[in-house]
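ugh ok so i messed up the first submission bc i forgot one of the chains. this is the corrected input, ALL of the components this time, i swear. 289 residues overall. if the numbers dont match what u have on ur side tell me asap before i send this to the collaborators (the ones from the other lab, u know who)
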Amino acid sequence: MEKQIMHTFFYPHPATTVWDYLTRPELMAEWLMKNDFEPTVGHAFTFRTSPVEKLAFDGIIYCTVLDLVPYKKLVYSWKTGPGDGKIVIDSIVTWTLHEKQQGTELLLEHTGIKEADFDMYTSLNAGWQKNIKKINELINTSKNAQTKTE
Amino acid sequence: MPKQKLSKSSSARGGGSSLPQRREEKKQSVGKVQIMDAFQVIAVPGRRQMLALLYKKSLTINALAENFDMSRPAVSKHVKILYSAGFISIQDIGRERHCILRQDGFRQLQEWINYFDGFWQNKLGKLEKLLNEKKSANN
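and heres the new structure output, hopefully the right one now
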């Protein structure tokens, strides 16, 4: 069903505090990962964590700050690969902060790869039976006809 | 609806074809390599387009090639890569070779998504704890 990762958290703290934890490398390291982030659009940085071999992920996340609106919005690219700087997944992480009376609502959207691939995958799950049926029809119609099925 | 087992039979084709041979058994034994392939498959826009076309309907290799401004050997190479990574199966129907989407390749992408979904859930919870500790320390 979901074509992207999305989480909303509410923190009973002002947006300035939450923002600090999203944009100050030493504070980010406390809850997220070691990094060399700088709050500047165009800044390239990495996050470091443990590798996950079966996901072709060597534990290094290559990022570039794409957009930054202080206390409101932060966007960076999120690229992973199996090693040697090779990138096989190219995705985007977007943080949106909404200051409320009692604190801050933080929205995380991690839109992976290309949306089309997600649509394809999720529809595949749902529509697999239909596809199998189509294949069967194709096989059946081709039994006597050799014309193109397109 | 009739249940039809997908045939793995391959008609004998002349030499010179660069298309993949049937090798279901071999694929099982090279799991690690194959998983790497799944991500590399998606990293190339042309192959994504091929999958998008095949999602709409299965196509013969010739019909697939018509959609791309690339040489026939180049198309064959991509088809071979899609096949080895489990994104498509290739089936001989009549005299044509049909490319049919398979779910296996996509499953690995779903694993990546699932992994990072859990990752963020976990990290944001950690942030919550951290901020709460900070708050009680300040009060």
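quick check: The two ends of chain A are 30 Å apart (CA to CA). that seems consistent at least. Chain A has one domain: 2-149.
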